[in-house]
Fold this protein.
Amino acid sequence: MNILVANLGSTSFKFRLFRFDGAGTPSLLAKGGYERVDDFGRAIDDCLAGLQAGGHVRSAADVHGVGFKTVLGKNLTGCVRADARVIAALDGFKEVAPAHNPAYAAGIRRFGEKLPGVPLVALFETAFYQWVPDAASRYAVPEAWFQAGVRRHGFHGASHKFVAERSAELLGRDDIAGRVRKLYQAGPSPVASGKPPLRVISCHLGGSSSITGLRDGIAIGSSLGLSPQSGLPQNNRVGDLDSAAVPYVMKTLGLSLAEVERQMTRESGLLGLSGVSNDLRDIGAAAAQGNPRARVALDVFAHSARHWIGAFLLELNGCDALVFTAGIGENNPDLRAAICADLDQLGVQIDPAKNDALRGAEGEISAIGSRVKIFVIPANEELVVARETVRCIAASN
Ligand code: ADP
Protein backbone atom coordinates (compact mmCIF):
# COMPACT_ATOMS: atom_id res chain seq x y z
CA MET A 1 0.00 0.00 0.00
CA ASN A 2 1.48 3.37 -1.04
CA ILE A 3 0.69 6.38 1.14
CA LEU A 4 1.60 9.94 0.21
CA VAL A 5 1.97 12.36 3.12
CA ALA A 6 1.41 16.00 2.18
CA ASN A 7 2.91 18.74 4.32
CA LEU A 8 1.36 22.04 3.23
CA GLY A 9 2.33 25.62 4.01
CA SER A 10 0.78 28.77 2.60
CA THR A 11 3.31 28.68 -0.29
CA SER A 12 5.08 25.34 0.20
CA PHE A 13 4.27 21.70 -0.44
CA LYS A 14 6.53 18.95 0.90
CA PHE A 15 5.75 15.27 0.46
CA ARG A 16 6.92 11.80 1.43
CA LEU A 17 5.81 8.54 -0.16
CA PHE A 18 5.74 5.45 2.09
CA ARG A 19 5.11 1.84 1.11
CA PHE A 20 3.58 -0.53 3.65
CA ASP A 21 4.34 -4.20 2.97
CA GLY A 22 1.95 -7.08 3.71
CA ALA A 23 3.10 -7.14 7.34
CA GLY A 24 2.40 -3.40 7.69
CA THR A 25 6.08 -2.43 7.81
CA PRO A 26 6.69 0.98 6.24
CA SER A 27 9.57 2.03 4.03
CA LEU A 28 10.22 5.52 2.68
CA LEU A 29 10.18 5.42 -1.14
CA ALA A 30 10.60 9.10 -2.00
CA LYS A 31 10.50 12.59 -0.61
CA GLY A 32 10.61 16.08 -2.06
CA GLY A 33 9.03 19.46 -2.03
CA TYR A 34 8.26 22.77 -3.65
CA GLU A 35 8.79 26.28 -2.28
CA ARG A 36 7.06 29.50 -3.39
CA VAL A 37 4.12 27.57 -4.82
CA ASP A 38 1.44 29.74 -6.42
CA ASP A 39 -0.49 26.91 -8.08
CA PHE A 40 -1.01 23.87 -5.83
CA GLY A 41 -2.71 21.94 -8.63
CA ARG A 42 0.42 22.19 -10.77
CA ALA A 43 2.68 21.23 -7.85
CA ILE A 44 0.55 18.12 -7.19
CA ASP A 45 0.68 17.17 -10.91
CA ASP A 46 4.45 17.67 -10.85
CA CYS A 47 4.84 15.54 -7.74
CA LEU A 48 2.79 12.66 -9.21
CA ALA A 49 4.67 12.88 -12.53
CA GLY A 50 8.00 12.81 -10.64
CA LEU A 51 6.94 9.75 -8.63
CA GLN A 52 6.02 7.97 -11.87
CA ALA A 53 9.21 9.03 -13.64
CA GLY A 54 11.23 7.80 -10.63
CA GLY A 55 9.52 4.41 -10.89
CA HIS A 56 7.97 4.72 -7.41
CA VAL A 57 4.38 4.42 -8.67
CA ARG A 58 3.04 3.19 -12.03
CA SER A 59 0.22 5.73 -12.14
CA ALA A 60 -1.78 8.02 -9.88
CA ALA A 61 -3.97 4.96 -9.15
CA ASP A 62 -0.94 3.48 -7.39
CA VAL A 63 -1.30 6.07 -4.62
CA HIS A 64 -3.66 4.32 -2.20
CA GLY A 65 -4.14 7.18 0.24
CA VAL A 66 -3.01 10.70 1.07
CA GLY A 67 -2.42 11.78 4.66
CA PHE A 68 -2.50 15.40 5.88
CA LYS A 69 -1.02 16.72 9.13
CA THR A 70 -3.86 19.18 9.68
CA VAL A 71 -3.33 21.64 12.50
CA LEU A 72 -6.47 22.76 14.26
CA GLY A 73 -10.14 22.03 13.58
CA LYS A 74 -13.13 23.68 15.21
CA ASN A 75 -15.00 21.00 17.19
CA LEU A 76 -13.04 18.27 15.42
CA THR A 77 -9.86 16.34 16.23
CA GLY A 78 -8.45 12.83 15.89
CA CYS A 79 -7.69 10.98 12.67
CA VAL A 80 -10.57 11.13 10.21
CA ARG A 81 -11.35 11.05 6.49
CA ALA A 82 -10.44 14.46 5.02
CA ASP A 83 -13.89 15.35 3.74
CA ALA A 84 -16.18 18.40 3.75
CA ARG A 85 -16.47 18.13 7.55
CA VAL A 86 -12.69 18.55 7.89
CA ILE A 87 -12.62 21.51 5.51
CA ALA A 88 -15.44 23.18 7.49
CA ALA A 89 -13.56 22.55 10.77
CA LEU A 90 -10.37 24.09 9.32
CA ASP A 91 -12.36 27.08 8.02
CA GLY A 92 -13.93 27.48 11.46
CA PHE A 93 -10.51 28.20 12.98
CA LYS A 94 -8.82 29.96 10.07
CA GLU A 95 -8.35 33.15 12.11
CA VAL A 96 -6.61 31.18 14.85
CA ALA A 97 -4.17 29.37 12.51
CA PRO A 98 -3.95 31.69 9.47
CA ALA A 99 -0.59 30.33 8.28
CA HIS A 100 -1.78 26.71 8.35
CA ASN A 101 -5.54 26.13 8.10
CA PRO A 102 -6.29 27.84 4.74
CA ALA A 103 -3.32 26.01 3.16
CA TYR A 104 -4.58 22.61 4.32
CA ALA A 105 -8.19 23.33 3.32
CA ALA A 106 -7.02 24.35 -0.18
CA GLY A 107 -4.60 21.41 -0.44
CA ILE A 108 -7.25 18.84 0.54
CA ARG A 109 -9.64 20.31 -2.06
CA ARG A 110 -6.96 20.15 -4.78
CA PHE A 111 -5.94 16.57 -3.94
CA GLY A 112 -9.64 15.60 -4.02
CA GLU A 113 -9.89 17.01 -7.55
CA LYS A 114 -6.60 15.54 -8.76
CA LEU A 115 -7.02 12.08 -7.21
CA PRO A 116 -10.75 11.32 -7.29
CA GLY A 117 -11.58 8.14 -5.40
CA VAL A 118 -8.27 8.06 -3.48
CA PRO A 119 -8.94 8.16 0.29
CA LEU A 120 -7.74 11.39 1.91
CA VAL A 121 -7.09 11.32 5.66
CA ALA A 122 -6.53 14.15 8.16
CA LEU A 123 -4.54 13.57 11.33
CA PHE A 124 -5.07 16.67 13.46
CA GLU A 125 -2.02 17.90 15.37
CA THR A 126 -4.34 18.34 18.35
CA ALA A 127 -5.26 14.61 18.44
CA PHE A 128 -2.35 13.79 20.76
CA TYR A 129 -3.74 16.18 23.40
CA GLN A 130 -7.20 14.61 23.74
CA TRP A 131 -6.33 13.28 27.17
CA VAL A 132 -4.78 16.42 28.70
CA PRO A 133 -6.58 17.21 31.98
CA ASP A 134 -8.78 20.32 32.21
CA ALA A 135 -6.39 21.86 34.74
CA ALA A 136 -3.73 22.06 32.01
CA SER A 137 -5.98 23.00 29.10
CA ARG A 138 -8.51 25.56 30.39
CA TYR A 139 -7.99 29.33 30.29
CA ALA A 140 -9.69 31.48 32.91
CA VAL A 141 -12.13 33.05 30.43
CA PRO A 142 -15.94 33.43 30.41
CA GLU A 143 -17.81 30.21 29.68
CA ALA A 144 -18.98 31.49 26.26
CA TRP A 145 -15.33 31.87 25.17
CA PHE A 146 -14.59 28.31 26.24
CA GLN A 147 -17.68 27.08 24.37
CA ALA A 148 -16.36 28.93 21.28
CA GLY A 149 -13.13 26.88 21.50
CA VAL A 150 -10.84 29.21 23.50
CA ARG A 151 -8.62 26.69 25.33
CA ARG A 152 -5.18 25.16 25.04
CA HIS A 153 -5.33 22.75 22.10
CA GLY A 154 -1.65 21.75 21.81
CA PHE A 155 0.09 21.18 18.48
CA HIS A 156 2.98 19.20 16.92
CA GLY A 157 1.09 16.11 18.04
CA ALA A 158 2.57 13.84 15.36
CA SER A 159 6.11 14.90 16.27
CA HIS A 160 5.67 14.52 20.03
CA LYS A 161 3.91 11.18 19.50
CA PHE A 162 6.92 9.92 17.56
CA VAL A 163 9.23 11.12 20.36
CA ALA A 164 7.00 9.43 22.96
CA GLU A 165 7.30 6.12 21.12
CA ARG A 166 10.98 6.30 20.21
CA SER A 167 12.16 7.59 23.61
CA ALA A 168 10.30 4.72 25.30
CA GLU A 169 12.17 2.27 23.04
CA LEU A 170 15.51 3.94 23.83
CA LEU A 171 14.74 3.69 27.56
CA GLY A 172 13.88 -0.01 27.28
CA ARG A 173 10.14 0.51 27.82
CA ASP A 174 8.60 -1.36 24.90
CA ASP A 175 5.36 -1.58 26.89
CA ILE A 176 5.02 2.21 26.68
CA ALA A 177 6.13 2.33 23.02
CA GLY A 178 3.37 -0.17 22.15
CA ARG A 179 0.84 1.86 24.14
CA VAL A 180 1.74 5.02 22.19
CA ARG A 181 1.67 3.23 18.82
CA LYS A 182 -1.94 2.14 19.42
CA LEU A 183 -3.05 5.37 21.08
CA TYR A 184 -5.53 6.56 18.45
CA GLN A 185 -7.07 3.08 18.22
CA ALA A 186 -7.24 2.10 21.85
CA GLY A 187 -6.95 5.35 23.83
CA PRO A 188 -4.56 5.41 26.78
CA SER A 189 -4.56 1.68 27.58
CA PRO A 190 -3.60 0.58 31.13
CA VAL A 191 0.10 0.36 32.02
CA ALA A 192 1.43 -2.84 33.58
CA SER A 193 1.32 -2.41 37.35
CA GLY A 194 4.56 -2.37 39.28
CA LYS A 195 6.44 -0.41 36.61
CA PRO A 196 7.61 3.09 37.50
CA PRO A 197 5.96 5.88 35.48
CA LEU A 198 7.97 6.92 32.43
CA ARG A 199 8.52 10.69 32.46
CA VAL A 200 9.76 12.37 29.28
CA ILE A 201 9.92 16.02 28.24
CA SER A 202 9.85 16.45 24.47
CA CYS A 203 11.24 19.68 22.97
CA HIS A 204 10.23 20.23 19.32
CA LEU A 205 12.37 23.25 18.42
CA GLY A 206 12.15 24.41 14.81
CA GLY A 207 10.39 26.98 12.64
CA SER A 208 7.55 26.40 15.11
CA SER A 209 8.47 25.22 18.57
CA SER A 210 6.62 23.49 21.38
CA ILE A 211 7.36 21.54 24.53
CA THR A 212 5.24 18.68 25.80
CA GLY A 213 5.34 16.63 28.99
CA LEU A 214 4.75 12.89 28.53
CA ARG A 215 3.68 10.56 31.31
CA ASP A 216 3.82 6.92 30.21
CA GLY A 217 3.80 8.21 26.62
CA ILE A 218 0.65 10.31 26.93
CA ALA A 219 0.77 14.13 26.71
CA ILE A 220 -0.03 15.93 29.96
CA GLY A 221 0.05 19.42 28.39
CA SER A 222 1.69 21.61 25.78
CA SER A 223 3.42 24.98 25.64
CA LEU A 224 1.23 25.78 22.62
CA GLY A 225 -2.20 27.09 23.55
CA LEU A 226 -5.19 28.28 21.55
CA SER A 227 -3.10 29.03 18.50
CA PRO A 228 0.35 28.48 17.01
CA GLN A 229 1.04 32.09 18.15
CA SER A 230 1.76 30.95 21.72
CA GLY A 231 4.35 29.26 23.89
CA LEU A 232 7.98 29.77 22.81
CA PRO A 233 8.86 32.56 20.36
CA GLN A 234 8.18 31.09 16.90
CA ASN A 235 10.00 32.01 13.67
CA ASN A 236 7.82 35.05 12.76
CA ARG A 237 5.00 34.48 15.24
CA VAL A 238 4.75 35.86 18.72
CA GLY A 239 4.90 33.34 21.54
CA ASP A 240 3.26 33.84 24.92
CA LEU A 241 2.07 37.43 25.29
CA ASP A 242 -0.01 39.25 27.88
CA SER A 243 -3.47 39.74 26.35
CA ALA A 244 -3.43 43.39 27.47
CA ALA A 245 -0.71 44.08 24.87
CA VAL A 246 -3.22 43.92 22.00
CA PRO A 247 -5.63 46.69 23.10
CA TYR A 248 -2.65 48.69 24.42
CA VAL A 249 -0.77 48.85 21.08
CA MET A 250 -4.03 49.44 19.21
CA LYS A 251 -4.70 52.51 21.33
CA THR A 252 -1.19 53.90 21.77
CA LEU A 253 0.35 53.05 18.36
CA GLY A 254 -2.90 53.55 16.45
CA LEU A 255 -2.81 50.07 14.92
CA SER A 256 -5.91 48.36 13.54
CA LEU A 257 -6.79 44.87 14.74
CA ALA A 258 -5.87 43.47 11.31
CA GLU A 259 -2.47 45.17 11.49
CA VAL A 260 -1.84 43.84 15.02
CA GLU A 261 -2.71 40.34 13.81
CA ARG A 262 -0.38 40.72 10.83
CA GLN A 263 2.50 41.91 13.01
CA MET A 264 1.92 39.15 15.57
CA THR A 265 1.99 36.45 12.89
CA ARG A 266 4.55 37.87 10.41
CA GLU A 267 6.87 40.30 12.20
CA SER A 268 7.18 38.91 15.70
CA GLY A 269 8.89 35.87 17.20
CA LEU A 270 12.59 35.37 16.48
CA LEU A 271 12.39 37.83 13.58
CA GLY A 272 10.80 40.55 15.70
CA LEU A 273 13.24 40.07 18.56
CA SER A 274 16.43 39.88 16.47
CA GLY A 275 15.55 42.21 13.60
CA VAL A 276 17.88 39.94 11.60
CA SER A 277 16.04 36.82 10.46
CA ASN A 278 13.50 34.20 11.45
CA ASP A 279 16.20 31.52 11.10
CA LEU A 280 18.30 30.68 14.12
CA ARG A 281 21.38 30.04 11.93
CA ASP A 282 21.40 33.70 10.81
CA ILE A 283 20.62 34.89 14.32
CA GLY A 284 23.47 32.78 15.76
CA ALA A 285 25.91 34.20 13.20
CA ALA A 286 24.80 37.78 13.94
CA ALA A 287 25.10 37.22 17.70
CA ALA A 288 28.62 35.84 17.21
CA GLN A 289 29.50 39.13 15.48
CA GLY A 290 28.23 41.11 18.45
CA ASN A 291 24.69 42.04 17.35
CA PRO A 292 22.93 42.69 20.70
CA ARG A 293 19.37 42.09 19.45
CA ALA A 294 20.40 38.75 17.99
CA ARG A 295 21.91 37.83 21.38
CA VAL A 296 18.66 38.76 23.12
CA ALA A 297 16.66 36.61 20.67
CA LEU A 298 18.80 33.56 21.49
CA ASP A 299 18.55 34.26 25.22
CA VAL A 300 14.76 34.70 25.14
CA PHE A 301 14.36 31.48 23.16
CA ALA A 302 16.49 29.46 25.61
CA HIS A 303 14.81 31.09 28.62
CA SER A 304 11.36 30.29 27.28
CA ALA A 305 12.34 26.67 26.58
CA ARG A 306 13.67 26.34 30.15
CA HIS A 307 10.47 27.88 31.52
CA TRP A 308 8.35 25.18 29.88
CA ILE A 309 10.77 22.36 30.66
CA GLY A 310 10.61 23.50 34.29
CA ALA A 311 6.81 23.45 34.25
CA PHE A 312 6.70 19.85 33.05
CA LEU A 313 9.57 18.76 35.30
CA LEU A 314 7.44 19.79 38.27
CA GLU A 315 4.22 18.32 36.87
CA LEU A 316 5.94 14.98 36.17
CA ASN A 317 7.76 14.96 39.53
CA GLY A 318 11.12 14.78 37.74
CA CYS A 319 11.98 13.24 34.42
CA ASP A 320 13.75 10.25 32.94
CA ALA A 321 14.60 11.82 29.59
CA LEU A 322 14.76 15.20 27.93
CA VAL A 323 14.46 14.96 24.15
CA PHE A 324 15.38 17.47 21.44
CA THR A 325 13.82 17.20 17.99
CA ALA A 326 13.12 19.28 14.79
CA GLY A 327 15.41 21.71 12.91
CA ILE A 328 16.86 23.55 15.91
CA GLY A 329 16.66 20.65 18.36
CA GLU A 330 18.51 18.33 15.98
CA ASN A 331 21.08 20.73 14.57
CA ASN A 332 21.89 23.45 17.08
CA PRO A 333 24.25 22.26 19.85
CA ASP A 334 24.69 25.81 21.22
CA LEU A 335 20.98 26.13 21.92
CA ARG A 336 20.82 22.64 23.46
CA ALA A 337 23.76 23.55 25.73
CA ALA A 338 22.15 26.88 26.72
CA ILE A 339 18.86 25.12 27.57
CA CYS A 340 20.59 22.43 29.66
CA ALA A 341 23.03 24.79 31.46
CA ASP A 342 23.27 24.65 35.27
CA LEU A 343 20.66 21.96 35.86
CA ASP A 344 22.97 19.48 37.62
CA GLN A 345 21.01 19.81 40.89
CA LEU A 346 17.97 18.56 38.94
CA GLY A 347 19.92 15.62 37.54
CA VAL A 348 20.40 17.08 34.03
CA GLN A 349 24.01 17.08 32.80
CA ILE A 350 24.90 17.45 29.15
CA ASP A 351 28.17 16.05 27.73
CA PRO A 352 29.69 19.01 25.80
CA ALA A 353 31.73 16.88 23.39
CA LYS A 354 28.85 14.52 22.53
CA ASN A 355 26.52 17.49 22.18
CA ASP A 356 28.86 19.38 19.82
CA ALA A 357 29.39 16.30 17.67
CA LEU A 358 25.72 15.39 17.19
CA ARG A 359 23.82 17.08 14.35
CA GLY A 360 20.86 15.75 12.45
CA ALA A 361 21.08 12.22 13.84
CA GLU A 362 19.76 10.20 16.73
CA GLY A 363 21.94 9.90 19.81
CA GLU A 364 22.44 10.45 23.52
CA ILE A 365 24.16 13.65 24.63
CA SER A 366 23.94 13.34 28.41
CA ALA A 367 27.07 13.03 30.53
CA ILE A 368 27.88 9.70 32.17
CA GLY A 369 26.15 9.84 35.54
CA SER A 370 23.42 12.28 34.43
CA ARG A 371 20.23 11.08 36.17
CA VAL A 372 18.20 12.43 33.26
CA LYS A 373 19.08 11.04 29.84
CA ILE A 374 19.29 13.67 27.12
CA PHE A 375 18.50 12.44 23.61
CA VAL A 376 18.34 13.90 20.13
CA ILE A 377 15.63 12.14 18.10
CA PRO A 378 15.17 13.31 14.50
CA ALA A 379 11.55 14.29 13.83
CA ASN A 380 9.51 11.73 11.92
CA GLU A 381 6.04 13.25 11.83
CA GLU A 382 5.32 11.95 8.33
CA LEU A 383 5.73 8.34 9.44
CA VAL A 384 3.14 8.88 12.18
CA VAL A 385 0.74 10.43 9.65
CA ALA A 386 1.32 7.60 7.15
CA ARG A 387 0.66 4.89 9.76
CA GLU A 388 -2.53 6.55 10.98
CA THR A 389 -3.67 7.04 7.37
CA VAL A 390 -3.34 3.29 6.75
CA ARG A 391 -5.25 2.54 9.94
CA CYS A 392 -8.02 5.06 9.15
CA ILE A 393 -8.47 3.66 5.63
CA ALA A 394 -8.58 0.07 6.96
CA ALA A 395 -11.11 1.04 9.65
CA SER A 396 -13.47 2.72 7.19
CA ASN A 397 -13.32 -0.06 4.56
P1 ADP B 1 9.86 23.90 10.03
O1 ADP B 1 9.05 24.09 11.27
O2 ADP B 1 9.70 25.00 9.03
O3 ADP B 1 9.80 22.50 9.45
P2 ADP B 1 12.53 23.19 10.86
O4 ADP B 1 12.15 22.10 11.80
O5 ADP B 1 13.28 22.85 9.63
O6 ADP B 1 11.31 24.13 10.53
O7 ADP B 1 13.39 24.24 11.69
C1 ADP B 1 13.89 25.42 11.15
C2 ADP B 1 14.95 25.96 12.13
O8 ADP B 1 15.92 24.92 12.33
C3 ADP B 1 15.70 27.17 11.64
O9 ADP B 1 15.64 28.18 12.65
C4 ADP B 1 17.13 26.71 11.48
O10 ADP B 1 18.03 27.58 12.13
C5 ADP B 1 17.21 25.38 12.14
N1 ADP B 1 17.91 24.42 11.27
C6 ADP B 1 17.35 23.63 10.33
N2 ADP B 1 18.30 22.88 9.72
C7 ADP B 1 19.48 23.21 10.27
C8 ADP B 1 20.84 22.80 10.09
N3 ADP B 1 21.15 21.87 9.19
N4 ADP B 1 21.78 23.37 10.86
C9 ADP B 1 21.46 24.30 11.79
N5 ADP B 1 20.21 24.73 12.01
C10 ADP B 1 19.22 24.21 11.28
Observations:
- Residues 2-123 form a domain with the Nucleotidyltransferase; domain 5 fold (CATH 3.30.420.40).
- The pocket of adenosine-5'-diphosphate is lined by residues 206-208, 279-281, 326-328, 331-332 (CB under 6 Å).
